[in-house]
Fold each of these.
Amino acid sequence: MKEEKEKMNWKEKIQLNRRAFALWYRECPAVLVSTALYSLVNAVFPYITLFFSAQILNELAGARQKDILVRRVLTLLAVEAVVLLLKAVVFRWKNVLSDGLCIYLYDWKRQFDKLLSMDFCDAEDTRTHELLDAIQQTSQWGAYGMRMVYLQFRDFIEALFQLLGGIALSVSLFRLPVRVDAGWLTMLNHPLCILLLVLLLFGVTVLSPCLETIGTKCWIECDEGFKFGNRMFQFLSRLMSEDKRALDVRLYRQDKFFEQMDAINCSYGIHSKAARYGRGKMGVACAASAAVSRIFIGIVYLFVCLKAWGGAFGVGSVTQYIGAITVLSGGMAKMIEITGNASVNAFYLKRAFSFLDIPNKMYQGSLTVEKRSDKNYEVEFCNVSFRYPGTENDVLKNISLKFKVGERLALVGQNGSGKTTFIKLLCRLYDPTEGEILLNGINIRKYDYQEYMRVFSVVFQDFKLLAFPVGQNVAASVIYDTQKAESCCRKAGVWERIEIMPKGLETMLFRDLSEDGVEISGGEEQKIAIARAMYRDSAFLILDEPTAALDPIAEYEIYTRLNQIVEDRTAIYISHRLSSCRFCDEIIVFHEGSMVQQGSHETLLMQEGGKYSELWNAQAQYYVSDAS
Ligand code: ADP
């Protein structure tokens, strides 16, 4: 990251900021319009008060004509009322569309969509997750990255109108001359004096934000140091809220880890780098920045008061000019700060885009998958080999296999033999390194991916149910067919449990989002996940260790229901427990990435010295010794 920081030029920084702004505008134009309007009204409002109250004060200190005074007061009140009303309306509009949370959501959704749409190998890659972690951390602790562009835009519009309003209201300060009989004060009319003052004001206005930027840079330098602290913090907050970990946390006081690790790493606290900077360079720069801006205000007061004393304008205008120049200078300072921030932020934008720009390298087909009510889809693996990206060895070697429609197929083999990888290839999470996979005779790469995936229902070993109603979980949708959901739950053997829940299918699962939510056992969760796979109504049902979380009785129950669950689908099971594979028509034995045996349970058992009988005997032995 450091190298990138040194290399980036202004052109690239501007391009990155422009691209980020265009992205925001494409995603949420209404948010930007409402924000711009709010910033405009916010910037202009102080000037309206300044202008009209100066008029009133001038009249009070001058001719004191009653009707003019009344007219000016009424105008001030009317204009203020209208602007305040407008401000309130725009404020609400902006807040509804773009309060902090919404902006967070846009940010989060952009990242989430990208993660879901990128090639699976990239989504699985730890480097992708490290990159995303880094992006999220800087966004959380300093709003750097995409969120900063939105905040900068808001501030830019405000600063722009502060500048324009300030110039409009303060031009006459330099134009109106001190009276010729005002003695030495007439030197204030000299063009050089005015030029000197303008230069001084400009210098001071630039200096203050520059000092501020030095302070900000110090903060950025602490970025690396915060990384560890933030990760620990995020982990700890998750740790505290996961009830499944509650026992472990209490028993082993895992919260203490955080304190000890932080003491070692010094991310936070008085010994941290940030605290040292605060006491040194960063503190001095920020204090100097504040002092400079106070000095500036003092100079403005002096100049305006001397001109008023010399008779250049009335006492009312003193407030107008002082106010206008102070806001004008604030606007200038903000502009400089925005430029400095945009420059620093460019490095974080580069990081954000390096995530968003991860290319999809897998071929994206467009063929539609023929819809067949008879579920007559034929899948064939032709000489398929596969090696994970960045690794040296094939984890699947020369697999050739044809699934017969409506067949129950079991994949067995020791851990690491390639069973899950086989399913990943079938679901096209990866493309084979060699060979091809065909669906009804056509390479699966040629199909539209979403269409292709509709042919499969998978219950992964580490499936996740959401803290939503049971019915919605089964249908994987907010709107669902109650009868179909019930029927799937019945076939999966979990209906009796759902029936006695307070609201049946409408009962919330878990307590994350509702106090009335019900906690269910691992086995019940697994049955609901099976019901979810059945609801999808696809031609293939893939069950990865379908009974892993079940006790032997529940496991037996599931297997006796297998025919009900699978119906006319083609089913593929992955299981460690060979006893559960006896029910399948065909068993495929994997060993070190190769298919070493294929056949029915009985045929395979008869092949003495084969891998299957070896595994079977090992497990049978285990059960026997376990039972004794
Ligand atoms: P099984 O499901 O039979 O236990 P897997 O298909 O999960 O086996 O794994 C097969 C081999 O591939 C193992 O050696 C495993 O370490 C390796 N492997 C699995 N996933 C990845 C991955 N994402 N990157 C690199 N190697 C992997």
Amino acid sequence: MCGIVGYVGPKSVESVLLVGLTRLEYRGYDSAGIAVIDKGDLEIRKEKGKIKDLEKLLHANPVEGSIGIGHTRWATHGEPDRVNAHPHADTRRKIAVVHNGIVENYQKFKAELTKRGHVFHSETDTEVIPHILEDLLSQGKTMAQAMQHCVDHLEGRYAFVAIYEREPDRLYFARNGSPLVYGRGHKEGFLASDVSAIIPAAREQVQIENNQWGWVTRDTLHLHNGTGTELPVTPVKIELKLAHLDKGDFDHYMLKEIYEQPDMLRRIIQARMTDDGKVEFPESVLTNEYQGRISRILITSAGTSWHAGMIGKIYLENFAKIATEVDISSEFRYRNPIAEGDTMVIAISQSGETADTLAGIHEAKAKFCRVLSFVNNTTSTIARESDAIIDLRAGPEIGVASTKAYTAQVLNLLLYAIHLAGIKWLISKEDRQIMFQEIRKVPQKIDEILSRAHILKEWAQDFRETKDFVFLGRHYNHPTALEGALKLKEISYIHASGYAGGEFKHGPIALITEEVPVVCIAPQSEVYEKMFSNIQEVKARKGKIIAIHSEGDEQTPAAADYSFAIPQAPDYLNPLLAVIPLQLLAYYTAIERGCEPDQPRNLAKSVTVE
Ligand code: F6R
């Protein structure tokens, strides 16, 4: 949440910052700004809205220089307007700061500094930082001493970057909780919330860790720990390529990412499943001896990753016979989960930066549980703070609504459950190979579903004015119903709720009218007949039925108003297939309604506040 970028080097700082901010826009897009030291003076430009609005402002009123910082905001404190936009400055406008996170004790600083004559303009927590720095400089402290003071006294989660007019060759930074990476190019230095903002110019990176602070010059990074000791730095090569961030011929990242799913799943299958019936997770350092002992699993994750976790629970219980609980991360830490015996915690996170999930990991560690994280970003904070990781291998996901990371999570969780079942001798090699044959067919089946995307596009025209949707599914597809509803509401702003089919009659059925479409996920499985009963219940109340059913089923399409067939598959693979038409339905409905699917209102891709 919020993207920050800093640059010092020979290029036009304005354009480096704008490119970086555009790549970070997925982290927030309600206002943006930059600060540059222009011919010795600190210049700040900021604007409400997206980066293109800031660009317009800069076109009319440009800045020049070789050092600067930029910010794209997802508002926490103070409404999204120009005054609250970052960068924020001190009273004399000599220091500018961009910040991602929340300074929890800002009120205390603000009150003290106001008494001492500092003038604040915004409602943000961030604005105290340049004022604290200014105050300390006026007492004779150096910037380095002032930064150390901030690390000692600021509470909450933050990553911030500061520039000071009198030191136009360095970017000061500090981190506690929110992500920050240093990038080194040729005689140029970068800081950013993630490396996507600074490639290809930055070729090597250093992840800044909690309680670290320092400064960046054109040539190097000066890094200190929380007690002020200078640390050695070992930059590592940045593997991410610009081509990974390209939208290609697609109108939106979300659509591109939906279409990437077959090849992505092929790559995961290729990397994980061996010809002799084994599943391999070479990046996980957990031993078979330990994994064979696991008696209980607690899964913690948020949003779409929580839905994947719900399916993961079924896999782990069905195949590996391990009692598994799944919690929304923001609840997990408050329910004081019991962790006895060999309880392992699984955290699932595409970004690897979700604050709630990270807090869940801290809770798990406090209970001495080992943490295995399924992450798409292997250098993320969650990856670094876990005992072991499983790399989702989805490739960069830029669309704010998660699509391919979800199917990557589901497949990796299935493979992990099979892996554990293998360690515990619960599934024979022959049975595993039968499962593998079915899993290998999934990408081709998704290709086939995608070839009929035009059907969903046509349906979407009928739902332009729809106000409410209901999604129903059972067993493996209860989470699919929740995910279908989440996708639709987050990008098309239509209210949508997902329910377990059996729960429908216990209340939600009261919602059904002719105006409310009900998406019934009813592929062939042991719960098919029960789902068909749900369809009948909706029909009896004149609800509009949108059915997702298996090919060859004639009964369901006959009862439905809209029906979409998915290829037949074993029930445990149905969620990977059934979610695809729901992703497309959400996407095309959003387009019909004139919504921007890659940047839905009020959302951000990486949720780094609790
Ligand atoms: C919805 C979506 C969110 C995320 C959630 C967790 O499309 O993307 O619900 O799934 O914010 O994010 P990660 O997986 O990064 O921890």
